[in-house]
Design brief:
Largest sheet: 8 strands, antiparallel
Structural class: mainly beta
Strand content: 35-45%
Number of helices: 5
Radius of gyration: 27 Å
Shape: globular
Strand order of the largest sheet: 14-15-17-26-19-20-21-22
């Protein structure tokens, strides 16, 4: 071991994350009469006015968003305004133990891609957790060429001379002309600015180094769209590391075989495969969704197929959750989640009136429950369906309604689970964060999913049998601390 250093100057224990803007839906009633009313917030999206129980036609009023005023053509009394506005996402987080030990080191992080308060909180916490201690770097030399190790592997290094011992990550490997292997290791191989760069920029500029056994030193930087033919006996990847938020991410850190692969983030290997137009190039993903990105279903041929597995056979106690957005209601029932055949299994559909219905097969027929709430059009709605014996609970954006099934019957099958199609009909719209649990979640837990706080409730992950996160692969796939990016060489 030729060097061992702890860099106290790189400690960060207090951050202020300045995110983008979160779109908030609000409703306010202004008491009084007149033609001009001043709103509390600056409207930025959908807008509706109700007076005396009747909606006022947009032709009868003008909205001045900049000045937050609404002017009617005639006098109105006690109008109720429903509209969306943009709220800035700003979060602060600090680690008092680290501040007491090393002194306060404050950092302000611009993060306009964070448009959700829960994600911003998690980002700030994970960032500080990664940088609260001084990062360790060391270098060791092996007297021979060693190709059995790889960049981003974690090993325990013991330095008996300096009385140091720590688990470190290999960040760089060099084979020199003297036949030696020079290894650089670090405890925190994160780049602070990685999230500040554009996603496509990270994909284009990803570094890869290759070692050719015929040469003692061989290093090349393969640039985006470079046309080259490489014949390599041994390939070692070197990728620009990422910060802690992405590194420890439950969904972005999933291995994919291609753009048409939809990995199961529940760790049950119930991985799905996309079919339909454009799925091999990633065009089925949006750039934003209910959380991160979403899956886009075209209503004609796109679907996800998950092969049958016994873990997907949910019966009398289960929970199904997903986020949905459509521009218009379908003309007839359209499949969302489908594992149903000959009155066995289950399926969830969107009906022509915007309600959600679940079917549960019982061999000689089926049970069904239909929500009274509707999903609406043009904006995201989060749905949780819980079965507890004879009772079905629907949660629409956290609001509960209860329906009595009248029976505990159920049946299973060996049919594959599909998302967005039943083989004949196809869903048109966007879906995100599809989750299935083999237990009935409580009302508090259903609310946690809606508020995007469920990722921290690790006690329930043992009951999650499927989680299709619909994360855009073009963000880059993280496997542990190793990064693999898709390119179009």
């Amino acid at each position: 071991i030729t060097s061992w250093e702890r860099d106290v100057d790189r400690v960060v224990n207090h951050v202020r994350v300045k995110g983008g803007f979160e779109n908030i839906l609000t409703e306010e009633t202004i008491t009084g009469s007149g033609t001009t009313f001043t709103l509390t917030h600056k409207p930025s999206g959908s807008f509706k006015v109700v007076v005396g129980g009747s909606e006022v036609s947009p032709q009868n009023y003008t909205v001045d968003a900049e000045n937050k005023t609404v002017t009617f053509t005639t006098s109105q009394t006690n109008p109720t305004f429903t509209y969306t506005y943009n709220r800035p996402v700003v979060v602060e987080y600090q680690d008092d133990d680290s501040i007491n030990t090393y002194g306060e080191n404050y950092k302000e992080i611009p993060a306009p891609w964070l448009t959700d308060l829960a994600d911003a909180r998690k980002y700030a916490k994970e960032f500080v957790n990664a940088w609260r201690e001084p990062p360790v770097t060391c270098q060791l030399i092996r007297p021979t060429i060693d190709t059995t190790i790889d960049v981003n592997e974690k090993i325990t290094v013991v330095d008996s001379i300096r009385n140091e011992s720590e688990q470190l990550t290999i960040t760089k490997i060099v084979w020199d002309s003297n036949g030696r292997t020079i290894v650089t290791l670090g405890s925190n191989p994160y780049i602070e600015g990685d999230w500040k760069r554009e996603v496509q920029d990270r994909i284009k500029k990803i570094e890869r180094r290759f070692f050719e056994q015929d040469e003692q030193i061989f290093s090349r930087l393969i640039k985006h769209k470079l046309k080259a033919k490489l014949n390599l006996k041994v390939k070692v990847q070197y990728a620009s590391p990422v910060d802690s938020f992405l590194l420890g991410h439950l969904t972005l850190g999933r291995l994919r075989s291609g753009f048409d692969a939809e990995p199961d983030c529940s760790n049950n290997n119930n991985n799905g495969t996309w079919a339909g137009s454009g799925v091999t190039t990633g065009s089925q993903y949006t750039t934003s969704g209910w959380r991160l990105s979403a899956g886009q279903f075209n209503g004609t041929d796109r679907k996800i197929t998950v092969p049958h597995d016994a873990t997907l056979d949910i019966t009398t106690q289960f929970t199904i959750a997903f986020a949905i957005k459509v521009s218009a209601y379908p003309g007839s029932e359209t499949p969302i989640i489908h594992k149903y055949s000959s009155n066995t299994g289950y399926k969830v559909v969107l009906r022509s009136d915007g309600t959600i219905r679940i079917y549960i097969g019982q061999t000689t027929g089926y049970l069904s429950a239909t929500s009274t709430a509707t999903i609406g059009t043009g904006s995201w709605k989060h749905i949780v369906i819980v079965r507890n014996g004879t009772t079905i609970y629907f949660y629409f954006d956290g609001t509960q309604e209860t329906i009595n099934l009248g029976s505990t019957n159920s049946s299973t099958n060996t049919t594959n689970l599909t998302v967005g199609s039943d083989g004949t009909n196809y869903f048109s719209g966007e879906l995100d964060e599809i989750m299935i649990f083999n237990t009935n979640l409580s009302s508090a837990e259903a609310t946690e999913i809606y508020e995007k706080r469920f990722w921290d409730n690790h006690a329930r992950w043992a009951n999650c049998v499927l989680w299709l996160a619909m994360d855009n692969p073009k963000l880059g796939n993280r496997i542990g601390t190793k990064t693999t990016h898709y390119t179009d060489w």
